[in-house]
Amino acid sequence: MGNFVQEITSMFEDHDDFFIKEMIVDNTAIFLMGFHTLIDLTKSNLYVRQMAESSTSVNDLFINISNQLDVDAKQIIKAVLEGKLVILSGNSNRNAVVEPVSRNLSRSIEEPKNENPILASMNAFGEDLTTNVGIIRKRLNTELLCHCSYQVGELNKRKLSMLYIRGRAPSSLIEKVHLQLQQIKSDIETIDDLNKHLGQRKSNLVSHLFPTEIPIQAVHSLKKNRVVLFLDNYPFALVFPHLLWDMFSSANDRNFPFVLALMLRILRVIGALVTIILPALYVATVSVNPEVLKLDFALFVAESREGIPLTALLATITMVVIIDLILEAIVRLPKSVGPTVTMVGGVILGQAMVEAKLVSNLLVIVITAIVIASSTLIGVQNSLYVRLLKYPVLFLSSVYGILGLFTGLTFIGIYLSSLTSNGIPYTTFRIEEKGGTK
């Protein structure tokens, strides 16, 4: 193998999807180079062989197969990153850039099932790991994008890929994740299985990984010094580490002017606070600290609860649990039935409970606001754990009133501040660049 071939190979040694295949033509070795995530190697190899059979020499092959001949190393690297097939002669005298038989990395235009991008590409990741990596390479064609592949599991061997941008993601983070993935011996069936190998405790509410099915979000995370993982037969990119700001900020926000993007993020922050605070505030002001309300508003609240046998805490917990059950039922039921359950559970049941004087009109308004507010957060798992956090604050407020509300918020702040992912705090806003060199 010539020095030039070795030089090109060494530049892509961190890319496990890079291939170099030797072929003998007219007693001369030639080398085929490219990314198998972008090139259909079997069909491209067959095409080159057919062209070689119709050529009288290696020089004729290069002339017949391409118009882009004898380019410099910089152009070769650019061609490889763009998904082209590069052919080099064994003596390094000739090279050619060929349009290969490419992998079909495009899917039919359809909206992602779990996320709703606005003013953005509507394609989503699929179950094939190679295709998913190819989609990222198609959007981020730079030699700094590194790809490491693994095979994990004991009974069920599954392919796993790690992508990162060299020089952006911290080297310490890359080394730790690389070591953790190499040490996986048990089967990986769920995200939680992978979370455990990345150091997450069983009692943690927040996942280390943030799943997204939108390529633009995965590329944005890579540029923000994160690591992106792909698991075979799983149609999501797993961004590591997952940070607090991820539930308020999305790559799709960048399609809007800065002022509008800022407004959207502020609304999401308000949504999280409303989800946690509003039910507790209702119970605290109704049953423990009614004196904090103005007299006319306190009388209005008291009048709305006239004739209701349930205490404020019991009525609130009942409504909150019912709403959570309805939301879970909507997720599990077929799409043809889900809207019907929403109508029956959200409207008819709520109205019936008000007319039966089991809950007050004001409580129904509070619960409706909670459902809407929790839905503004980015990511299903973020919405779930924020909805769970409202319960301890609710119980503290039912006993200690406003003091219990602030105590609960303080404990939540302490808990979230204590979470880390491989030494990176969950509450940090950005990961500092420390030069990944692997």
UniProtKB/TrEMBL annotation:
InterPro entries assigned to the protein according to its UniProt record, in alphabetical order: Spore_Ger, UPF0353/GerABKA_families
Bilayer-spanning residue ranges: 266-288, 308-330, 337-354, 360-380, 392-416
A Pfam family reported for this protein in Swiss-Prot or TrEMBL: GerA
Keywords: Membrane, Transmembrane, Transmembrane helix
Family under the similarity heading: Belongs to the GerABKA family.
UniProt-recorded name of the protein: Uncharacterized protein
Organism: Gordoniibacillus kamchatkensis
